[in-house]
Amino acid sequence: LGTMVWNFSQCGVRHDRYFELTAAECVRPNRVRSLAPRNYQNTLIAYSRMRHWHEKYVDAMARGIARLLDAHDPRFPKTATSVLFSYTCK
User: Fold this and answer.
1) Selected residue with higher pLDDT from 54 and 76
2) How far apart (Å, rounded) are the C-alpha atoms in residues 49 and 64?
3) In angstroms, rounded to a whole number, what is the distance separating the alpha carbons of residues 1 and 48?
4) Which runs of consecutive H residues, i.e. helices, occur in the chain?
5) What's the mean pLDDT in 19-43?
6) Average of pLDDT values for 21-48?
7) What is the C-alpha to C-alpha distance for residues 90 and 27, in angstroms, rounded to an integer?
């Protein structure tokens, strides 16, 4: 989801329906907990570039990145796997 949002923004292609559907999916608790820091960064940049506002999405991303940063040990470059919640499709 995040990759496609990023790709649309890189190409300058507006796809409002896709951005809305992605935002609706990304606010789900399991999805928020499963995102890596780069996913937060890339999707927020994409939404900003496309000037697409979705309040619940921004709130969910703000809460999620704060949770990751609070649990991150700055001595190491990557987030510990114990902090990330793996998301698997069934």
Assistant:
1) 54
2) 21
3) 16
4) 2-11, 16-26, 29-34, 37-49, 55-71
5) 87
6) 88
7) 19
Residue 70: how many other CB atoms lie within 10 Å: 8
Judge contact between 60 and 27, C-beta under 8 A. yes
Joined together, the tokens standing for residue 42 give: 């890339």
Looking from the CA of 82 toward its CB, the CA atoms found within 13 Å total: 3
pLDDT at 25 over 70: yes
Give the residue carrying structure tokens 């990759």. Answer: 3
How many residues are present in the chain? 90
- pTM of the predicted model, to two decimals? 0.74
Average pLDDT over residues 59-66: 88
In Å, how far are 5, 7, 46 from 12, measured between CA atoms? 11, 8, 10
